[in-house]
Write a structure and sequence with these properties.
Length: about 375
């Protein structure tokens, strides 16, 4: 065969076959490995995050540039593709047969398409299965107020909220309204009716959707994230008018959540918003996921702050914000208070985490060390 007759080399992207079939294979492998996140990048093997650690998967081929572009276009609706071209990133969720619902962020890095994916379990875990502290489980019995779950990205905030909301669904006949970007868990109605609204599909913005909720007769509102001062203010108003509102915020600890909320507002509005927070915030749950002692999976560690009379007084006084952490540390379980270190100690006692992990994540390693030693 002459050089002119030699077959053209096959496109590397074509060797991977149908993009959705390939994606399903990667996600199925990720499920079996109990991965929390999957990273797909051009010129790289797929990468899984298992128990918090990133691990490349050489069983799958390196992904060509053209394949990543084809995959992105395949999973996106036209509106998502238009947003991606304009903003260079987009959030969406897709459903895959045999896999379930998948949350996807598609973005550009170094001029090529990349994706971060998370498989959302079709089974919503119960609060007991998540080993949530009893005072967190009791939050589902409230009639009104704002409950915030905070923590780093990937700390399980969405799963905790879905678990609590589904518990209300199992126990009470209420109208539950969720506003999410994108929708993650799909709820099955039991005693409650559940309306799920997705930003970009069912509503234009969190703030707009939140303003409309007050005319949609909800009892319970799940707001995926409080992103700006307008959303925070409307969430507080909803709590003030007799609704139970659950939402998330990015903050490392319960006390810092208060500071983060207030700092979003201009200085002249902060005294008013302090008052609204003091009157309508019911609890903050800050959480982290820690590796289990057995070496497989992770367990949630919580700090829980309930707005007692003392905490309300500290929120109202801008000079006493730093004392909120002391109030949590000195608070009683009967008041719904639990510090991170207290929960770490309980998890160590129960054999869920090692002594090393407890000390590595402690707020005060010295104090926890003394407690572990029996002092």
């Amino acid at each position: 065969m002459t050089q002119s007759q030699a077959p053209a080399p096959q496109d590397p992207a074509a060797q991977l076959g149908n993009p959705l079939r390939f994606l399903s294979q990667v996600l199925d492998h990720a499920n079996r490995k109990r991965a929390s996140d999957i990273h797909l990048r051009a010129k790289s093997h797929p990468i899984l995050r298992v128990d918090g650690i990133l691990r490349p998967v050489p069983e799958f081929p390196v992904l060509p540039l053209t394949f990543m572009e084809e995959l992105a276009q395949t999973i996106m609706a036209p509106s998502h593709w238009d947003q991606f071209q304009e903003d260079y990133q987009v959030d969406l969720s897709i459903g895959l047969k045999g896999i379930g619902r998948v949350r996807v962020n598609v973005y550009y890095q170094r001029g090529s398409v990349a994706m971060a994916l998370r498989v959302i379990s079709t089974q919503i875990p119960t609060p007991e299965e998540l080993r949530l502290p009893e005072m967190v489980q009791r939050l589902v019995d409230m009639e009104r107020g704002l409950v915030i779950v905070t923590g780093a990205t990937g700390s399980g905030k969405s799963t905790t909220l879905a678990s609590l909301v589904n518990e209300i669904n199992n126990k009470y006949a209420k109208h539950i309204l969720t506003i999410e970007d994108p929708i993650e868990y799909l709820f099955t109605e039991r005693r409650s009716i559940i309306s799920q609204r997705e930003i970009g599909v069912d509503a234009n913005s969190f703030a707009g959707a939140m303003r409309a909720t007050l005319r949609e007769d909800p009892d319970v509102i799940l707001l995926g994230e409080m992103r700006d001062y307008e959303t925070i203010e409307i969430a507080l108003t909803a709590a003030e008018t007799g609704h139970l509102v659950f939402s998330t915020l990015h903050a490392p600890a319960a006390a810092e959540t208060i500071t983060r909320m207030i700092s979003v507002f201009p200085a002249e509005a902060q005294p008013t918003i302090r008052s609204k927070i003091a009157q309508n915030l019911h609890a903050v749950v800050a959480q982290r996921l820690l590796p289990r002692k057995a070496g497989e999976g992770r367990v949630v560690a919580c700090e829980v702050m309930t707005v007692t009379a003392l905490v309300r007084e500290l929120i109202l006084d801008p000079l006493k914000g730093k004392e909120i952490q002391d109030a949590i540390k000195k608070g009683k379980l009967s008041d719904g208070m639990m510090s991170f270190d207290e929960h770490l100690f309980l998890l160590w006692q129960q054999g869920e985490i090692s002594e090393e992990v407890a000390l590595d994540h402690a707020t005060s390693p010295t104090d926890l060390r003394l407690k572990l030693d029996g002092f």
